[in-house]
Amino acid sequence: MDLLERLNTVIFPEAVGAGCFGENVKKFIRFKVSSHPGTEQYCSDSTFGHVLLERKTGFCFGLPVFVKTRNRSKFPTEAEANSMFHNEILFYKTIVPFLRKYDRYDILTTSFPEFLYGKAGDDHNPEDDFIVLNDLRHRGFRRFIGKHLDENHFQLIMDRAGKFHGLSILWRDEDPDGFAEVTGRIKLLDEAQLWADFAEIKCKKVFREYMFRGVDPLREDPAYRDRLAGISGTLERAHERVDECMVAAGPLTALIQGDFHVNNMMFKYGADGTPVEVAFVDFGIIKLCSPAVDLCRVAFFSMSPQMKRDHWNQLLHQYHDSLCRQIGDHRLKPSFETVDVDIRTKGIHSYCCVATVMPMVISLKEGVQVPQRPKPTNLDPGGLQEATEAYIKRMKELGGADVTEFLVDIVRHMVDKQFIFDG
Fold first, then answer.
1. Residue 417 vs residues 160, 162, 247, 255: alpha-carbon distances, Å
2. Helix H or strand E encompassing 68
3. How many Cβ atoms from other residues are within 10 Å of residue 26's Cβ?
């Protein structure tokens, strides 16, 4: 049974029976697909369409929806996809209702899609995993098109991120047992391995070369070559450092989106083209850890070098102010210094992510084939070593000079802002 048939004969009739479209809806009529867009949602497939429903009064109406299903590619692995769908269903069905108790700004309504129906679990066919959301496009949201987000976009993101992170800080303090029980159901992923799987990195040496792609060019720069010992020491143990950044500890521990970049956001714009609202989507990698993981992820992926130089501290203050407003007159309200130190300590996590996945992202956009690791078949030891070295060199050059400079700029920024390394 294909997806369209399952939606029309099983999924949507079940949803109506469960009251997911409202108690006054008595009948599902049909689902019509409007598009299967080729968006950059690498971990799932997307289908947009309209559900035609009938109310108890006999009035028929259409509801625009977005249906998310498992993809059939080799990434992510089945175990990773199981965890992602489990987490996203847990977020919408269980976590969001708890967070609403503390949402004084109603951000969960204005900046998140409405969950309608979904299933995920290990006790059924993975092909039956699905999530149905209200289509944000019909609320006026659309994807950002461009390379770098401007200051207006970032101000909006920092404001809404602060309000979102503040909700779980309040929940954790006011209902510690409930918070621990629910968040304990989150399935954690090995993120460094997840990135490596996406990037088709097949050996540790390639992973190391990726980590140092933004560092090595600066060894010839007089302004930086004597300031690289700390970050170099950290990147020698990048996988372990990534794991350490995800440990839930300290006053800033919050529930984070976990994959916080522009492809997982949509924006609503005013008549003059200025963004007036942002919506966050895709909660398959939620976790309890430092908000720095979210903030630095979107900054490192989508902030121009000039903006990092001119507006970094201003945007951090925007985030801190928003976080404090959501928390209110609460004893857990953090100082700006606490937020700043946390970001400078945990921000390396996001550099490791960008350094791993950016070459693949650019290659997919440009249609460039990823080099394949040589196999020992029909190669003597010398030939295998030569082929392996050539493979590593090609992998390190994937995405071209633009990717290298992109990563170099992030390293410059971390060094200039005195990020805290352990080397």
1. 24, 21, 23, 26
2. strand 60-69
3. 15
Q: Say how many C-beta atoms besides its own lie within 10 A of residue 19's C-beta.
A: 11
Q: What are phi and psi of 36, to 5 degrees?
A: -115, 80
Which residue bears the tokens 């970049």?
Answer: 261
pLDDT for the residue numbered 38: 47
pLDDT in tens, 151-181: 999 999 999 999 999 999 999 999 999 999 9
Which CB contacts under 8 angstroms, 24+ apart, belong to 53-56? Answer: 53/16, 53/21, 53/25, 53/27, 53/28, 53/29, 54/25, 54/26, 54/27, 54/28, 54/29, 55/24, 55/25, 55/26, 56/24, 56/25, 56/26
H/E stretch holding 214 reads none
Task: Tell me the C-alpha distance between 272 and 157, whole Å.
Answer: 19
- CA dist list (Å): 359 to 98, 368, 393, 409: 39, 10, 13, 15
Asked whether the beta carbons of 317 and 295 are under 8 A apart, the reply is no
Query: Under DSSP, is residue 200 helix (H, G, I), strand (E, B) or coil?
Result: coil
pLDDT at residue 71 in the model: 77
Listed in sequence order, the DSSP H helices in 122-274 are 151-174, 176-183, 191-199, 204-211, 229-235, 238-245
**Confidence at 42, pLDDT banded by 50, 70, 90:** low
Question: pLDDT confidence of 39, banded at 50, 70, 90?
Answer: very low
Q: For residue 184, is pLDDT > 50?
A: yes
- Diameter of the chain by CA atoms? 79
What would the two tokens of residue 51 be?
A: 């559900």
Is residue 242 within 8 A of residue 191, CB to CB? The reply is: yes
pTM score, whole prediction = 0.94
Q: Which two tokens stand for residue 220?
A: 């010839």
CA distance linking residue 413 with residue 350, whole number of Å: 13
Give the per-residue pLDDT at 77.
Answer: 87
Tokens read off for 139: 């609320």
Distance from C-alpha of 414 to C-alpha of 91, rounded to nearest angstrom? 32
Would you call 388 exposed, middle or buried from its count of C-beta atoms within 10 A (0-12, 13-18, 19+)? middle
Q: Which residues contact 142 (CB under 8 A, 6 or more apart)?
A: 266, 267, 268, 269
Task: Give the DSSP letter of residue 364.
Answer: H
| Cα-based distances in Å from 189 to 86, 117, 285 | 12, 24, 7
Residue 373 has pLDDT above 90, yes or no: no
